[in-house]
């Protein structure tokens, strides 16, 4: 009777010793082989933008190891509720490395991004694959991506710049909305460019966002709306290439730090109605412009102005009415501690004849926080008042 009891106990003890031996051997063997790197298991590139619910791990890339030397992996897989992998491991003798050993930080046991709001991005911290949630403010720069290159017989459409990947060719007789990207450039504008350009010249047709403040990868045109929303695309359409673009804003406060107002006044020799229109256009061009810290921005580029007769100006006309508006903007930026915007001068004539009131003017933000410019007008005609504010985003 005693002998029959000893046999199972002895067998169990031997099994424990064998398991400990296998674990020791497994650890020893593992020491001779470098562990799998987290960037080897990704379903996308490190630095790519992701949102909650996206699969960021490619399960087929996860290394399998012998069950015999890695019994503890079965426990890890059980905690991850990967029952099929456990059964498969027992049947085949090789088991998948538990994801907990390779990934953490907003990545679920199933390799899906979760637990954060807004556009995060894939990263590596130490030996772990993680998703970095977005900072309160995420910005990049509007950068040419899809271009049209004029050829002898038509057009090449390339992605990634003039020397980028060829997407397709379009004959000169087939240039239309269905064949040319036209979200930023109308087909009418494109045809005007095509008719006056030379072979080899190129035009930007679509834009990406690059140079992000948090170091994430370039976001191509096809993904901007998905990750950042339609308002960001609309903002990009209004501002020239190279402009900073606030792609994401988390919960934040807005506080007015400086204000200024200027009256249009009457100069009938230039036409007060046209001057009032130009002042209102100037306000439209700058209203809503967001400037991240340590960057500068022009105004909107798709704003038109009316020429006013002026015998002292080149061609006999100038865009009058923008000087009071420029003084209003100058007063607010100066009061907010910002440097004098380029393209704006001290004095009554704040904007030179040959300076564009929008793309020819640039406001620099020397602070450590983003700012928003707010401009609006009140009244009409010579009694028009142009208001400007600088708003701190924090």
Tally of discrete structural domains: 3
Overall structural class, as computed from helix and strand content, comes to alpha+beta
Q: What value does the average pLDDT take?
A: 88
Q: How do the SSEs run, as a string of H and E?
A: HEEHHEEEEEEHEHHEEHEEEEHEEE
Radius of gyration equals 31 Å
Biggest sheet features: 5 strands, antiparallel
Fraction of residues in helices? 25-40%
Cα shape: elongated
Q: In DSSP terms, counting alpha (H) and pi (I) runs of 4 or more, how many helices?
A: 8
Number of extended strands: 18
Please provide a written account of the structure.
The chain has 394 residues and is an alpha+beta fold. The chain folds into 3 domains: 98 residues, no CATH class; 109 residues, no CATH class; 142 residues, no CATH class. The protein is built from 8 helices and 18 strands. Strands 6, 7, 8, 9 and 10 form a 5-stranded antiparallel β-sheet that branches. Strands 11-18-17-12 form a 4-stranded antiparallel β-sheet. Strand 6 and strand 7 form a beta hairpin. Helix 5 packs across helix 6 and helix 7 packs parallel to helix 8. The radius of gyration is 31 Å and the shape is elongated. The chain starts with a helix and ends with a strand. About 5% of the residues have low confidence.
Please give a quick description of this structure.
This protein has 394 residues and is α+β, with helices and mostly antiparallel strands. It has helices at 2-32, 71-79, 83-92, 187-196, 221-228, 230-238, 272-286, 322-335, and strands at residues 49-50, 64-66, 94-96, 120-125, 128-132, 137-150, 154-159, 165-171, 202-210, 244-249, 254-263, 289-291, 295-298, 308-309, 317-318, 362-365, 371-378, 385-393. The chain folds into 3 domains: 35-132, no CATH class; 139-247, no CATH class; 252-393, no CATH class.
């Amino acid at each position: 009777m005693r002998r029959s009891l000893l046999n199972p106990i002895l067998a169990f003890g031997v099994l424990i010793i064998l398991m400990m031996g296998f674990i020791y051997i497994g650890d020893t063997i593992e020491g001779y082989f470098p562990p799998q790197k987290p960037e080897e298991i990704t379903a996308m590139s490190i630095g790519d933008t992701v949102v909650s619910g996206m699969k960021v791990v490619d399960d087929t890339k996860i290394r399998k190891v012998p069950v015999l030397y890695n019994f503890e992996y079965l426990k890890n897989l059980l905690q991850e509720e990967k029952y099929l992998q456990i059964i498969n491991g027992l049947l085949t003798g090789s088991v998948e490395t538990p994801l907990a050993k390779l990934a953490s930080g907003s990545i679920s046991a199933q390799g899906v991004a979760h637990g954060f709001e807004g556009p995060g991005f894939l990263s590596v911290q130490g030996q772990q694959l993680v998703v970095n949630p977005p900072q309160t403010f995420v910005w990049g720069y509007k950068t040419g991506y899809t271009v049209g290159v004029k050829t002898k017989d038509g057009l090449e459409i390339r992605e990634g710049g003039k020397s980028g990947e060829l997407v397709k060719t379009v004959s000169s007789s087939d240039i239309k909305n269905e064949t040319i990207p036209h979200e930023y450039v109308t087909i009418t504008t494109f045809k005007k460019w095509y008719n006056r350009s030379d072979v080899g010249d190129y035009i930007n047709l679509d834009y990406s966002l690059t140079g992000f403040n948090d170091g994430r990868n370039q976001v191509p045109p096809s993904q901007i709306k998905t990750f950042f929303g339609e308002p960001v695309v609309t903002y990009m359409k209004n501002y020239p290439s190279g402009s900073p673009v606030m792609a994401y804003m988390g919960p934040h406060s807005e506080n007015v730090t400086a204000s200024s107002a200027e009256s249009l006044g009457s100069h009938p020799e230039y036409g007060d109605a046209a001057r009032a229109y130009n002042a209102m256009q100037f306000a439209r061009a700058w209203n809503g412009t967001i400037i991240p810290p340590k960057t500068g921005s022009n105004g909107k580029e798709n704003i038109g102005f009316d020429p006013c007769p002026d015998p002292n100006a080149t061609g006999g006309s100038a865009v009058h009415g923008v000087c009071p508006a420029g003084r209003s903007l100058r007063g607010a930026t100066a009061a907010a501690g910002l440097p004098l915007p380029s393209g704006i001068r001290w004095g009554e004539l704040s904007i030179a004849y040959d300076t564009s009131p929008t793309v020819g003017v640039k406001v620099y933000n020397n602070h450590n926080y983003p700012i928003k410019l707010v401009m609006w007008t009140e009244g009409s005609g010579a009694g028009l008042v142009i208001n400007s504010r600088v708003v701190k985003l924090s």
